[in-house]
Amino acid sequence: MLSDHFQNGIETAKLVWSRLPTSEEGESEEVNSSKRSDGTSVESLDYEVIENYAYREEQAQRGKLYVGYYVGVKWFFALLIGIGTGLAAVFINIAVENFAGWKFAATFAIIQKSYLAGFVVYILINLALVFSSVFIITQFAPAAAGSGIPEIKGYLNGVDTHGILLFRTLIGKIFGSIGSVGGGLALGKEGPLVHTGACIASLLGQGGSTKYHLSPRWLQVFKSDRDRRDLVTCGCAAGVAAAFRAPVGGVLFALEEVTSWWRSQLMWRVFFTSAIVAVVVRTAMGWCKSGKCGHFGSGGFIIWDISGGQDDYSFEELFPMAIIGIIGGLLGALFNQLTLYITYWRRKSLHKRGNRVKIFEACLISVITSVISFGLPLLRKCSACPESEANSDLECPRPPGMYGNYVNFYCSKDNEYNDLATIFFNTQDDAIRNLFSAKTFHEYSAQSLLTFLVMFYTLAVVTFGTAVPAGQFVPGIMIGSTYGRLVGMFVVTFYKKLNIEEGTYALLGAASFLGGSMRMTVSLCVIMVEITNNLKLLPLIMLVLLISKAVGDAFNEGLYEEQAHLRGIPLLESRPKYHMRKMTAKEACRRQKVVSFPRVVKVANVFSVLRSNKHNGFPVVDHGRNGEALVIGLILRSHLLVLLQSKLDFQHSPLPCDQGVGSIPIRHNFSEFVKPASSTGLSIEDIHLSQDDFEMYIDLTPFLNPSPYIVPEDMSLTKVYNLFRQLGLRHVFVVPRAPRVIGLITRKDLLVEEDDDSATVELQSTSVRAQRSDKE
Amino acid sequence: MLSDHFQNGIETAKLVWSRLPTSEEGESEEVNSSKRSDGTSVESLDYEVIENYAYREEQAQRGKLYVGYYVGVKWFFALLIGIGTGLAAVFINIAVENFAGWKFAATFAIIQKSYLAGFVVYILINLALVFSSVFIITQFAPAAAGSGIPEIKGYLNGVDTHGILLFRTLIGKIFGSIGSVGGGLALGKEGPLVHTGACIASLLGQGGSTKYHLSPRWLQVFKSDRDRRDLVTCGCAAGVAAAFRAPVGGVLFALEEVTSWWRSQLMWRVFFTSAIVAVVVRTAMGWCKSGKCGHFGSGGFIIWDISGGQDDYSFEELFPMAIIGIIGGLLGALFNQLTLYITYWRRKSLHKRGNRVKIFEACLISVITSVISFGLPLLRKCSACPESEANSDLECPRPPGMYGNYVNFYCSKDNEYNDLATIFFNTQDDAIRNLFSAKTFHEYSAQSLLTFLVMFYTLAVVTFGTAVPAGQFVPGIMIGSTYGRLVGMFVVTFYKKLNIEEGTYALLGAASFLGGSMRMTVSLCVIMVEITNNLKLLPLIMLVLLISKAVGDAFNEGLYEEQAHLRGIPLLESRPKYHMRKMTAKEACRRQKVVSFPRVVKVANVFSVLRSNKHNGFPVVDHGRNGEALVIGLILRSHLLVLLQSKLDFQHSPLPCDQGVGSIPIRHNFSEFVKPASSTGLSIEDIHLSQDDFEMYIDLTPFLNPSPYIVPEDMSLTKVYNLFRQLGLRHVFVVPRAPRVIGLITRKDLLVEEDDDSATVELQSTSVRAQRSDKE
Questions:
Q1: The CBS domain covers which part of the protein (chains A, B) (predicted)?
Q2: d(Cα A507, Cα A452) in Å, to the nearest integer?
Q3: By CA distance, what is A616's nearest residue in B?
Q4: Cys-Cys link to B460, which of A144, A638, B475, B577 (CB 3.0-4.6 A)?
């Protein structure tokens, strides 16, 4: 059936194919360059697993040793990602804690003399920190704004947002989040750490940053999108592991929330990366214990250890816990909706006006935040310290910014504390610790908690979307633990049991709000357990998450999905849409005119086709022995552009360049075909050809993907979607129904043993069948 | 292109397709009925997602309300699985603890007078328990022998082992494991609990047990293999969650170890099931605390709580920990290899001889185990109790079978204990607790530990494969914690630091042996953390697992994979084999003669084709408008058999039965097409037709799957494998290369919004394209 000259090429390709180390699917996505309102452009990944003949040829020359080396490098890179992300996390933590600690210490020193002067100093320090952050972001790394998780999710789903994984984004993220978190805004450093991990991974994967001349030769190993994406997955897990010191949570986060194509082989590597992060962070913290890290240093590996808290629960408690779940779902869904509206408005009207507006906005929010967090506790009347009975380790009162409960702030008497200041005029980590704390019954008045809840919720909504690196985990925990503690107070009062702790309810509240907003399930549950080190509460956290997610899902999508939509990142969900059941493959691509190339094509034709449309893949059609047409493969726009630019493969003759099996000369270094992450890649406008060039021909055989996946024209779109999504494809050919079936492949055909060569396979499979029929 | 009369059918099918609630892939596997040496037959799943026209018609009549009901039932069943598995676990636990507790109490009471009499009583009680177990298994439920995990893994991979999910297997598993574990054999109850969970799930999924008349009408909901498999996945997770009281570990176990096709939607449901199990088990244990459960009752929710143990670790400790990892890898791989040989020999020579040999074998092993576990401690000299200083809660000595360390057994003085009896003459749970225990330096002598290690390892290897329900988790933990504690003793002596606990090393040893034998990673790590409630050791467990898995992988495959191979369960691994790179799709099915049917086929032809070959799927070929052949779909052997048996669709005319869109009469109840799990289904030999019947015709259109997945003939087998494995297919058509490409489907085509009807979609997609080109 196949034409002779093509058959020749196919034979070669088959031979070469056999030695290709990376032949799996998992391709990425096409250009979709709609300009975004903030000036950055969303661009889909323009590279895929290079699967053409010539690339395989190059790979094959390297043999089995290379495969071993390749695997070794993967693990080594996983190690590097772990170390890098761990160190970045430690650096950010130490910097934030020191800035914040120093800020509170200075303010507290001054308010001993004048509250007004302290107020001004507090505002100014915060302003300076936030300004540094927003300045870095706007001037140097615009892609580092926000949490970055929607963008990373998009990248792993196959859509590359411009600039998201660059070296400058990494730098901007690290220093930007130090400023924004240290400056006391209502945001966290956890989302940015995930992005940081992903950036480190991506830079390693593409062999360093060429722009900053940090791309040594030995790093240039990974040429396929799949390998790079695997590394970025490791980076995400490392980020979560570092942010929450939750290695298992990191693995699950990567699995549940960010990746789209998970392979079980990858799990082990991701796990390794997380373990490395845990070791690095732990080691660094051990080093800090000797006091070398300033204000940082007192924290243990578990961030908010409440393992000494409530041990057991009774059935009556399940009712208030369910209420917490419902509140979490409602407030979480509301949060998603409000941030969606505000971000939409911000993008449409505010951020269009340039960087000055962004800077002004962030600074304004900083001042408002400072005023509220300093001012509101001033208005609050202090409460008397509880009698220090058995719990003598709880000192009361304490200065703000120090580790512990019962902050003394604007109190007239010595043994009084300000409950609002305890949570508001404090670093977020300490505030959460205070809210989670056990054995501190009625430390907070309901009035203070409500005030804080309303104010902080508003601040978190308003701060979301400003041009600074911003995570939503810690604000979410703050909001959730506030109403959780509120419910807990009522439970303690109502049930009058001794073993109920308000801190437990605060924890459940935190879980419920995160569940209601982010809609994560297993990963969030494990993260909550790992940050609080209390396994016994696991079933309760599960219950609360189930309820809050269900309630939230009734209203809208998760925070990251909503934000991804808004940013124009087209995520392919794991389920096909309901309406696809009505459609066939042919209907889905009805409006699309298919442009195909012949095997040997004139340069002028290629050029004009690439200019005249935006398609990213073109079928290549050749003629068979009997003159009938045959689809011989798929060629990518990006590869055609490389061919046009390099001109190496131009030939004068319109005849195919067959010189026998395996002898098609390789003129390319195949890293040419790989587009670096976060860049726009080549465009047809960049290519300039002379009149002579236009008259030349290219034989496309070595550069095409000889067998893309195909579907018959009347297959249901649901099935096509599953194929596309499960295998991570980029193009699927829709073809007419076949005239005949050459064979059926079943499980049996795929279970042939490795060590047989083809002759014995044949023999064996016959004899196996013979044996079977004998037996039956 | 398509023939008119077929076009008509396709239109109908499309219309119907739109309302089908379960149109996803995830089909199962063909019959592969090679007789096994032990008499049971391995049979692949003979049902798949029913995707034919007529089934969809039936489904469509039920509408959207039905979809909601369907989802509700799924969650309700998840709830039932959780409750059922939780209760089964509690029942087994209480029974085992009571039998074992009563056994030790009786023995201890007797040995106060005569050690010989006690010895005899001990042996007899164990023998009776083991005999009850092996009797149930051999006479009543042969499929309940062993752990069942390889079989469940096979089922979820698409291969149905005969009898594995029956009601009698469930009963046999529960009562059998009470006998075998209570009888003191070197095996655990955890693997069987996973199997128990899967059985409960499968019975719910197929609507009860028809044989025992436990199949109410309201249970008959799930007709597709995918839904049933999802339930079984939930059941596995529930089993692990119940066995180890580790809900997160259960979810991860199901994800990592057993399922082959994981969908993120499923995760949430599996998680829910695990949470329910946790609540049920916890509630039951709370109820037991009041003393209603006899010898059971003192245990907490955490099985072996060592959260009070070692808190921190130093870098020097990493070296001995790595050694533990290496030992674990070596001993684990050796365990797999030895059990493989022994099981092979047992199947080949021993178990062929019938049930009496099986019973005798189990009883012999029981006696040997009893003699060793009673006799060896007798030979051991007792040690003096440590001075009871601060750790006054450790009573010394204690009677055996009670909760605690320092067992008094055959000691001459009052303040002496027998260290070998502490671990050997004890229930396994208590022995592990003693090995993990902190603050008990040098409780065991190296000599005792070594003796125990060698003896127990041998017993575990020999016991594996006997005809009783047997898990390998607890024996693995026993073996691992013994050498772990041994290494720990040397570390304590060598490093002379105060905060090093031997129990920590025992835990790491347990993790390393399980890692080296079962090769699980993340799930095992989480299970170890959850059973010991010590999150701080997580990075160390990770490290040890990494090493032991890597070492083990150098020698052989994991325990479950080896056993699955041996039992003739052909698992499709997630990665294609290396040699597949050399092959094309056509080569893979080269020896297979494709038998296809015309659209309207004579009954006699169907009958003779089904008799003459063993194929499970047949292409159906029709003729297009211009007389050319067209493949119109796939018909399954099992569906043809149902058609032949029911005779409802026989017709006299050889013409297609088109009566317009949507009007093909439905004569079947579609549960007829569903084969129950673990049964052999219809065979061609069961069908008897008259001569008149043979002259009739059947129109296959309503019963065929109109668009199975297709691959071009020269696609690499690696790509075919990925398609097959990722989508969980059963048949793939190999077709000639297409003559032309009708369209390309890309991400854009799959992102059409739901709420647009087809007219606006068309408009919108045009305008979007126009906008884009304007911008660029």
A1: 589-650, 704-760
A2: 17
A3: B746
A4: B475
CA geometry: angle at B288 spanning B287 and B293, to 5°? 135
Give the residue from B2, B522, B724 with the most A CB atoms within 10 Å of its CB, the best one to mutate: B522
Interface of B with A in 289-328 (CB under 8 A): 301-302, 307, 312, 315
Q: What is the domain partition of chain B in residue ranges?
A: 63-289, 315-352+384-567, 578-759
Closest CA of chain B from A767, distance in Å = 12
Residue-wise pLDDT for B182-204, tens only, equals 998 999 888 899 999 999 998 88
Give the closest residue to B104 by CA, choosing from B396, B415, B373.
B373
The answer to whether the Cβ–Cβ distance between B522 and A32 falls below 8 Å is: no
Which residues are A431's β-sheet partners? Answer: none
**Other CB atoms within 10 Å distance of the CB of residue A557:** 17
Rounded to whole angstroms, how far apart are CA atoms B726 and B262? 9
Count the residues in chain A.
776
Express each pLDDT in B36-64 by its tens digit. 333 333 333 333 445 565 556 555 555 66
CATH of A315-352+384-567, one of 3.20.20.70, 1.10.3080.10, 1.10.3720.10, 3.30.70.260: 1.10.3080.10
Rounded to a whole number of angstroms, the distance from the CA of B212 to the nearest CA of chain A is 30
Q: What is the DSSP letter of B407?
A: B
Q: At what angle do helices A225-244 and A63-111 cross, to 10 degrees?
A: 30
How is A545-578 classified by DSSP, letter by letter? HHHHHHHHHTT---HHHHHHHHTT-----SSPPG
Q: Which chain B residues are within 8 Å of A35, Cβ to Cβ?
A: 775
pTM: 0.82
* Residue-averaged pLDDT of chain A: 79
Q: B731 — contact with chain A (CB < 8 Å)?
A: yes
Burial of A468 (0-12, 13-18, 19+ CB in 10 A): buried
Q: Which of A262, A576, A747 sits opposite B158 (nearest CB)?
A: A747
Question: At the fourth CATH level, which superfamily is domain B63-289?
Answer: Clc chloride channel (1.10.3080.10)
CATH number for the domain whose boundaries are A578-759: 3.10.580.10
Count of CB atoms within 10 A of residue A414's CB? 8
B669 CB within 8 Å of a chain A CB: no
10 Å Cβ neighbour count for A554? 10
Q: Do A582 and B18 touch (CB under 8 A)?
A: yes
Q: Hey, what are B573's tokens? A: 């691994």
Neighbours of A129 (CB within 10 A): 23
Cβ A741–B733 below 8 Å, yes or no?
A: yes
Radius of gyration of chain A (CA): 30
End-to-end CA distance of chain B: 39
Q: Distance from CA of residue A339 to its chain's centroid?
A: 19
Q: Which of A:561-590 have CB within 8 Å of B?
A: 570, 572, 574-582, 584-590
Candidates A535, A596, A599, A721, partner chain B, best to mutate (most B CBs within 10 A):
A535
Predicted confidence (pLDDT) per residue in A249-293, tens digit: 898 888 887 777 777 778 888 988 998 898 888 888 878 877 777
Asked if domains A63-289 and A315-352+384-567 share a fold, the reply is yes
DSSP B299-313: --SSTT--TTS----
Q: How many CB atoms sit inside 10 A of residue A759's CB?
A: 8
Interface touch A275/B539, C-beta < 8 Å: yes
Q: A698 and A643 in contact (C-beta within 8 Å)?
A: yes
Closest-CA residue to A374 (of A159, A125, A547): A125
Is B586 in contact with A263 (Cβ distance < 8 A)? no
